[in-house]
Amino acid sequence: MSSLKGIAASSGIGIAKAYRLVQPDLSFEKTVITEADKEIQRFQNALITSKKELEVIRDQANDKLGADKAAIFDAHLLIANDPELISPIEEKIKTEQVNAEYALKEVTDMFITMFEQMDNDYMKERAADIRDVTKRVLSHLLGVHLVNPSMISEGAIIVAEDLTPSDTSQLNRQYVKAFVTNIGGRTSHSAIMARSMEIPAVVGTKTATAEIQDGDVIIVDGLKGEVHINPTPAVIQQYKQEQVRFEEQKAEWAKLVNEKTVSADGHHVELAANIGTPNDLDGVLNNGGEGIGLYRTEFLYMGRTELPSEEEQFESYKAVLEGMDGKPVVVRTLDIGGDKELPYLDLPKEMNPFLGLRAIRLCLEEQDLFRTQLRALLRASPFGNLKIMFPMIATLDEFRAAKAILEEEKQKLINEGTRVSDQIELGIMVEIPSTAVLAGQFAKEVDFFSIGTNDLIQYTMAADRMNERVSYLYQPYSPAILRLVKMVIDAAHKEGKWAGMCGEMAGDEIAIPLLLGLGLDEFSMSATSILKARSQILRLSKKEMETLAENALQFGTTSEVVEAVKKALEDR
Q: Which CATH number fits domain 2-20+154-251: 3.40.50.300, 3.40.50.970, 3.50.30.10, 3.40.50.2300?
């Protein structure tokens, strides 16, 4: 047995065989062949196998994700059956006496280049389809396994360099027992998705993909941040007992599902959930969520080949609002950029995308897609308690510009005779230090703040939160961060507004006592963290936590803050 140490990103224990989500080496050499007919048959066999795979994937996508997602694989099948593509490959093998790999790549590269140069979005998309089909056929010619997370059909633990949102969108919760990644931290998308899917995760191990092979039995300890490879039967038995104890603890927390979140001295705060799709609603309600503090709408736009229509967005927003039955739902407008890309938008590459054209900046430049989303939200507003939040706001001018566009679309809908709620609160995510510093001015114009600590911390500390080599600088308990949080909360309260937090810090057991003491009104977190957080807050005195927070603001280091919190909790 060997072990790896990483960052405990999602609580729980997973035991299963490893599934390495690592792209294979598809390199090859050009060779001269002597029997063209045999080489053409080898190519045909690879093509037949690829088509059978595509049919299975298409049918699975249709069952799990719907006909629109399955249509992508219909397009791939059309390409795999297209004589205009297949015949030139066979002809090249025959006339030039070259191996099938070389002929396939030469011909498909020509088509890809041709389609990419066309001034037509539809034809450019076909280039991507040809590239995908080529990769699949090439893998069969080379005899290597092409990973496909959507094809997992038995219990498995995903091992990867990292997991993108598009990767996670293909995973079946029924079979995926845990994640292990080389890179990332508690706020990486793989970690956030693991918590959303209620499965254990250890990230930032650095060497998981090098040390774990397909089929290895591994244990993921999402409580301690440990991964055990091919453990002994005794160790497996020990961890199975740990699983039982963890489930018993969860059962105790579950008793609080219908309770209000009230501190020991009678102060009520709201515990809300972060979600990505309407499918996450069951998790929110089953875990006692008092609202949705962050609906990440970008997942509506991902894993597809074109923008979602206004009607499709309307139905999604309506489903969430109705499902929450009058409880508050904070919807964040499109937050694309940084590590979240939409290939079909064909945006230029940037040297530093986290500081580039993303979130509200993109929406103000690409107003058609922004207006479509706002119309869908406004149309859905009568079906629940909608609050709209703009991400990545850096200046008052940006907020005013976004609000003006919203008001224009609202008036157009009213003029068309469409009903729109007149009770929609409009707020911003506070993710940029300059916005926190200017919170007093913003508070005069917004209805609420939601502090996005995932980005606020990385921008304040100048440390990429996706880079495990500087993960030591990702310090949510830093006195610098706490001071910024206090500035935002105090500014909101001075104007009679509320302040929430939708970053992962909101569900952190060390941060919660500090945030309660600082006066945070709403804590929004992964749904699976709600009951644990409620259990903790019920035992805390707000007045005592105020004293703790005041002291923490005077410290100079994170370690001093953590030590003070731990001592305060031990003394209770």
A: 3.50.30.10
